[in-house]
Amino acid sequence: MNLIKITDINAPELDVFARLTENQLRTYYEPEPGMFLAESASVIISALKAGYEPLAMLVETGRLEIEAQPVFDAVKEYCGLEKASALPVYAADHDIVCQLTGYALVRGLWMTLRRKASVSVEEFIRDKKRITVLYDVVNPTNVGAIIRCAAALGMDGVLLTHPSVDPLVRRSARVSMGTVFQIPWTQAERDESDDLIGYLQSHGFKTVAMALTDDSTSVDNEEIRANEKLAVVLGTEGTGLPKDVIAACDYRVMIPMYHGVDSLNVAAASAISFWELLK
Prior knowledge:
The protein has 279 residues and is α/β, with parallel strands linked by helices. The protein is built from 14 helices and 12 strands.
């Protein structure tokens, strides 16, 4: 490995790890489609296994031998010895890392990776039967948790509207436990998001809004399950789905509640709906 010791917090090599926003990272590496930053060994290894190209790595010196070694091995396995030997690995002591992050307790392992080219909605849905649509879900924790549920419970993919959080931001990828690299997903362009429900319906999907309305049926509805192609539409935490989106969907479903509880966290609701609708 190409080990480079860092002793100055202001070293320009650290900009991509600490001083660029995640939106800036998307355009920092030319040509398109940019880069993203992943943290923790398990998430990084999942990204490498999925074919993402590593660009550089930052590791706390005390974690080189134990925690970073599996990552080095994964770079060799999935990218080849030539890439592994050329990959810049910046090593910094604990106090430098803490100054960068602002926290005394950090994971101490980061990697920048090149993004893959985006996939159009048309291409994404072509071979899928069960997908979930994240409609303007802006909380990265919820996005990561929903993707993890979708992967674990057998959904074919995750489609996000343009305003939704990018699944490759660090928190989403970390909360997903790396499953963001294991299940297909794409984020619609702005124009694709304008009438996403109608577009899915025109391609044979029955759309299912998770919403509490007067005509909502239970999520374990057999008629809904019987459809060949389903798109489960989830809204943002708190406000839920817009009324026009709810009205446009073919079905509206709810999860029966008890003890006066009126709703669940959207990630918890996604797990229940995926499980029921895939039976």
